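My current task is to audit a protein record that another person submitted. Alongside the sequence sits a line of tokens, each denoting a local backbone shape. Please read both lines and tell me whether the tokens look consistent with the sequence. Do not assume that whoever made the record got everything right. Thanks in advance; the entry in question is below.
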Amino acid sequence: MVPEETAQYAGILSLLLHFRWTWIGVLTTDDDNGERFVKNVLPVFYENGVCFDFVEKATRLHVVTVFDHVMLQGARIHDKIMSSKANAMLVYGESDSMVSLRWLAYLSEIEEIELTFKPKAKVWIITAQMELMSTAYQRTWDANMFHGAISVTIHSNNIPAFQQFIQNRKFHDDKENGYIRDFWEHAFGCTFPSEVMHERDEDICTGKEKVDSLPGSFFEMSMTGHSYSIYNAVYAVAYALNDMFSSGFKLKAKMGRGRLKSLKEFWQLHQFLKIVSFNNSVGDKIFFDHNGQLIAVFDVINWIIYSNQSFHRVKIGKMDPEAPLDQVFTINNTAIIWHNWFNQVQPLSQCNDNCYPGYSKKIKEGEPFCCYDCMPCPEGKISSEKDMDECYTCRDEYYPNKKHDLCIPRDISYLSYEEPLGIALAFLALLLSFITCFILVIFLKYQNTPIIIANNRNLTYILLIALLFCFLCALLFIGQPQKVTCLLQQTAFGIIFSVAVSCVLAKTITVLLAFMATKPGSKMRKWVGKTLTYCIVISCPLIQTGICVVWLATFPPFPSPNTNSVREEIILECNNNSATMFYCVLAYMGFLAAASFVVAFLSRELPDTFNEARFISFSMLVFCSVWISFIPSYLSTKGKSMVAVEIFSILISSTGLLGCITFPKCYIILFRPNLNNRETLMKKKLRD
């Protein structure tokens, strides 16, 4: 009729984990049962996250000859308990173990016992085998140390008329009932008259003493788990006997002195006990499993000790193995009365303070895993709960806050037309495009003037158109990246810039070859002409186009969210997919610019009325300076700032080409037209 102990221990484990009591002390009896408990049960607790500050085995009180040893052992255990940081004490024992445990509270009142630590409150967790009981000499002892204790007990219910039966119980001098006689004398501190002893006027048991006047710790009036088990056991046997008789079995027994002496077919009763199933008088269903084990519910009891030493049990939960998984263990926290020491705040029983959100546990070397240090989460990780083993990384669309205890949604970021920087860059690109168009119109209007005809006007038109597209190309980098814009950004920029720089290179080479061709006997005359010019303008961009085609065919750029550059933002950007190809485009463009700069530098002093070489030299110097400084600037910025740096570099380098090459001509055309006619040029040549 006693449920399997493993179910009880599962309930105790659930209780410990529910209150996060992971650092506890353990008291057991120093016998085989206690040894089995330590060997079989405690490892299961440890595997589920409960550690033990100490495990003490207490000797049970048996004989007076070992009294001194037991008291010294009790003093040692008392100091061990009171010095422990653990506030939860798990006690495993037998029905009479409470008698030994009550000595712990009484030791401080014995002068001969020296205690190092003063008594303080603990939460006692009592197994179902134990009851709050005391001997006759202990019934006046203070039991306040057990106030707020929690026990897991066999389920019980109030049997109708049970308390009335107990209250009306009186002793009748029956020689066959020696147990009741002994209990009565110990409980009321009296003696029944006998034939051997003379009658006395005092301390005589009348048999009419009231049982309900006894302290609760000495005799409980209510139905306990043990009493309830006995009650159900009697009915189980009765039902089994009834079933056996009903099935045709004959009970053969010899009766003597009013007692059943033998039962020849007693073993046949077992098969009926295994299958017995009934509802008792309070409606609880009693039945057994296939192993003959009672299927029973455990109650979680809170012990309340009042100042007058009266005792009360309060059911605060239960453990039902047959219930749905989420209802196997239930408890009502608000119904628990803790010891006054804790000011009605749930006690902590841990090796150290909790690691709060933002920190993770680090196990202390050489100590149980329940003892740990708290380490702050590293950059980029958080912990959102107490006592987390590891910090974890937020999902890509979130980022950790400064306390590392919360993931905050990231803002979506890209260089848009709605923000000041995007508006400014777009306006600047359109303004420079308009200026380029204005200059092109001027050059077309004055295309037959000497300053336009000089240095190959067709190359100048191609250069201006290329620069116009360079400025417009910057607009591809503004706005939310799309698949098409990502494919066009770098490739269009690289090809168009190659056309512009090729035009500049063609101009400088034309000037240099033209001067060299004027020397007598020069073989360079065959290279002078439009064929070489157009060959340079076509072939150089064609190589860049080939590089871009290979790039698009192998590692095409694509729109991608960047979650690594800026913690608070998800940056929508175009992923170049291949840094090698990107820098190949830049390197080839740099090669053309360097070649143009070298050739222009060599041609800067050539005698010519409208020699552009010195202006081209300066424009290439600006161009190269911009793109050389672009690389470290680009690599050191993050997010949309990288895009802004590239747009700015495109606009400034294009402006350098536009301004250095065309602005001097526009100045002469618009403000010094007298310098832009054949007569002035002829006079100047004659003077030279």
Remarks:
- The domain at 420-687 is CATH 1.20.1070.10 (Rhopdopsin 7-helix transmembrane proteins).
- The CA atoms of residues 641 and 665 lie 36 Å apart.
- The radius of gyration is 50 Å.
